[in-house]
Automatic annotation (TrEMBL):
CDD domains: ACT_RelA-SpoT (cd04876), HDc (cd00077), NT_Rel-Spo_like (cd05399), TGS_RSH (cd01668). Belongs to the relA/spoT family. SMART domains: HDc (SM00471), RelA_SpoT (SM00954). In eubacteria ppGpp (guanosine 3'-diphosphate 5'-diphosphate) is a mediator of the stringent response that coordinates a variety of cellular activities in response to changes in nutritional abundance. It comes from Winogradskyella vincentii. This is RelA/SpoT family protein. Gene3D superfamilies: 3.10.20.30, 3.30.70.260, Beta Polymerase, domain 2, Hypothetical protein af1432.
Length: 735
């Protein structure tokens, strides 16, 4: 770099720093500015020799993260300083956590320590490295929630500046973001950041889909603006008459949520009707907030017919994220459904800033602090360190995105639970001991099974007994992470006791068969009975499912093992040779893997049934070799996030020699001769082999399933397009 370039860069760094101070949501005192300046100077020094992949000076990254923390999230000076310092200890050996503590105090040091990346983890093919990272990151929630919030800001800036990275790295980071960071942002109440993380995640995991929706939204922007204007015009006169101080805004739905709706409902972009919401934000003192919200609700519903099933009152019962608002769906101009969100300025700030605004208004609001309550609840779920890392993260995620229901205890206390929760979840939410001793439950005075799904407004009473204890069926009934982790811990403790007894029984029985119980014989038994661990083996002996007869069969097979081994050795080459020949001609020319475009043995995943033309990737499983998944498979994000090192790029290179099975779902108005039209189109026009067909009709509306064999995706798409044109058919989609 020339002197001129260095001078320009330094000026840009100074400008970015000044901007950071200017945009802070909190009012910064002289001491705050001094702390931030000191952190900035240390960060500049620590990163002076570093550059990002894009070529710019590394210091721009911590400044950008600090800016997100200050402006978007609205945290305090301690958090801003911590954000500036978040990579210092990891990237520069001259600085330690002790140095940070001496310079900036215990709070900043604790946050920076929590933010310092984990680098000394053992890589093991059976345990996901990334899930282990997530587990350790989530454990920091108990120490200081600001660690997680700054981590989310760090991830947001990394996602915003990912263009210069390799494509496989982009997919891995984007998948992690959709898998854990976006749900975390949602749970902490950072809705704007959650939306941006989801959209950016989609941009890199499904770029073509993202681009297509983004372009269509841009095209329809003018029409949306005009619609919001016409909607506002109708109610403005009435709102002004009441002397309300308000503003009406239109909020487009995120690209990610439109995509999710298209997939969930099996509709095209044009068929998604609620692509935006109308937001009415009003000024009010705290005492009159609720009264004014319902007044505005009344005015809106005077002019537009409401959908009574779509009223959401989060003012009387705020979400556990702290979110408050009234949501109503009304029939707006041109008979279109429109979601209207009614919020005070305070509610709007909490919705946009989450944690920070929640604390700004905390003194005015005497209600229990939901964020603190949630973190305290997590304490127990996070304590269970015995769980497999991936299972742990999956359990934790259960509660992140879940919608909420509100139920009452017998005394009339209101409890918030995730949608789909059961009486068992309610029992564990009261206290672990209540959950452990649950014998039954009453909902609204009637006895119900423990698997009963609770609804908002239910009154739930838990019946307990000293003799009751968890059994394995409870895992089918419990949905919350807390309940499941407690049940698993209890079952594991029981299993260990039975396994210890089983080990001694096995030792005695093997002795009678003249076999010594040692590591070698235990491994043979585990393989023979197709089990995963020695604990499984001892447990099964303890409960009697592996009895004398089975152990005698094992001893007999063991004595013949040598003969079998010789036979297999002689037989194998011939079999595999024939198999290889058959496989190579029919399958191996279809898919290639990795940068070298290698031909490998693979299986098609049942969860998404890819066919030629679908965008796919390979996933190396432990027992089944290479499995091929579609890029938009429901499991793709979890696999790419947790097991990135087992993912292999894959692409179709030829599909002329093989046919693939696919299922088509249809629905529409039942017409005479409709089935005949469909079968004629498939068999005559398309030359597609139809394997099975089934139709059901109910009061003039039909649904149907057709299983067809096609050579590639193009042929399937053509078939679906032609089926859509048949008179009476409403929807056609690939299962």
């Amino acid at each position: 770099m020339t002197d001129v370039d260095i001078e320009k860069e330094n000026a840009a760094i100074a400008k970015a720093y000044k901007e950071l101070l200017k945009v802070s949501y909190q009012t910064l005192s002289k001491e705050d500015k001094k702390l931030i300046r000191q952190a900035f100077d240390v960060a500049v020094d620590a990163h002076k020799d570093q550059r990002r992949k894009s070529g710019e000076a590394y210091i721009f990254h911590p400044i950008a993260v600090a800016k997100i923390v200050a402006q978007e999230i609205g945290l305090d000076a301690t958090s801003i300083a911590s954000a500036l310092l978040h990579d210092v200890v990891e990237d520069n050996p001259n600085y330690t956590i002790d140095d940070i503590e001496q310079l900036f105090g215990e709070a900043v040091a604790r946050i920076v320590d929590g933010l310092t990346k984990i680098s000394s983890l053992k890589k093991d093919m059976d345990v996901s490295l990334q899930a282990e990272n997530f587990r350790k990151m989530l454990l920091t929630l108990n120490e200081d929630v600001r660690v997680i919030i700054i981590k989310i800001a760090d991830r947001l800036h990394n996602m915003q500046t990912m263009d210069s990275m390799r494509a496989d790295k982009q997919v891995k980071i984007a998948s992690e973001t959709l898998y854990i960071y976006a749900p975390l942002a949602h749970r902490i109440g950072l809705y704007n950041i959650k939306t941006e993380l989801e959209d950016l995640g989609l941009k890199y995991t499904e770029p073509e889909v993202y681009q297509d929706i983004a372009e269509k939204m841009q095209e329809s922007k003018e029409e949306q603006d005009a619609y919001i204007k016409s909607f506002s015009k109708v109610i403005e006169k009435s709102l002004n008459k009441e002397g309300l101080n308000y503003e009406i805004k239109g909020r487009p739905k995120s690209i990610f949520s439109i995509r999710r709706k298209m997939v969930k409902q099996g509709v095209s972009f044009d068929e998604v009707y609620d692509k935006f919401a109308v937001r009415i934000i009003y000024k009010s003192d705290f005492e009159n907030e609720k009264f004014l919200a319902w007044k505005i609700y009344s005015i809106v519903t005077d002019h537009f017919t409401p959908n009574p099933t779509r009223l959401r009152d989060w003012i009387s019962s705020p979400k556990s994220t702290g979110y408050e608002a009234l949501h109503i769906t009304v029939v707006g101009p041109k008979s279109r459904f429109v979601e209207v969100q009614i919020r005070s300025e305070r509610m709007n700030e909490i919705a946009e800033k989450g944690y920070a605004a929640h604390y700004k208004y905390k003194n005015q609001n005497v209600k229990e602090d939901n964020l603190d309550l949630w973190i305290n609840k997590l304490q127990e779920a996070l304590e269970n360190n015995e769980a497999d890392a991936v299972d742990f993260v999956e359990q934790f995620k259960l509660n992140l995105y879940s919608k909420e229901i509100f139920v009452f205890s017998p005394k009339g206390d209101l409890k918030s639970l995730p949608k789909g929760a059961t009486p068992l979840d309610f029992a564990f939410s009261i206290h672990t001991e209540v959950g452990m001793k649950t014998r039954g439950a009453k909902v609204n005075g009637k006895l119900v099974p423990l698997s009963h799904k609770l609804q908002s407004g239910d009154r739930v009473e838990i019946l307990t007994s000293e003799n009751a204890k968890p059994n394995s069926n409870w895992l089918d009934y419990a949905t919350t992470a807390r309940a499941r982790s407690k049940i698993k811990s209890a079952l594991k403790a029981d299993t260990k006791i039975i396994a210890e007894e089983g080990k001694e029984i096995l030792r005695r029985k093997l002795k009678q068969l003249k076999i010594t119980l040692n590591e070698s014989s235990v491994n043979e038994l585990v393989n023979y009975f197709k089990l995963s661990t020695s604990l499984d083996l001892f447990y099964r002996v303890g409960i009697g499912t592996i009895d004398n007869t089975k152990l005698k069969a094992f001893a007999s097979s063991r004595s013949n093992a040598f003969v079998s081994y010789i036979k297999n050795k002689i037989r194998k080459p011939e079999v595999s040779k024939d198999l290889d020949k058959e496989e190579i001609t029919s399958k191996y020319d279809m898919l290639v893997f990795g940068q070298e475009e290698e031909k490998l043995n693979y299986k098609l995943a049942n969860c998404c049934n890819p066919i030629p033309g679908d965008k796919v990737f390979g996933f190396l499983t432990i027992n089944d070799g290479m499995k091929v998944h579609k890029k938009n498979c429901p499991n793709a994000v979890s696999l790419q996030s947790n097991y990135a090192y087992r993912i292999m790029p894959a692409k179709w290179i030829d599909s002329s020699q093989q046919v693939y099975t696919s299922q088509i779902n249809l629905s529409g108005i039942d017409n005479l001769g409709l089935v005949n039209d469909i079968t004629t189109l498939i068999s005559e026009n398309m030359h597609v082999n139809m394997k099975s067909i089934s139709f059901t009709s109910d009061d003039g509306v039909f649904t149907g399933k057709i299983t067809v064999q096609v050579k590639n995706q193009t042929m399937l798409k053509k078939l679906i397009d032609r089926l859509k044109k048949i008179n009476g058919i409403d929807k056609v989609s690939r299962a």
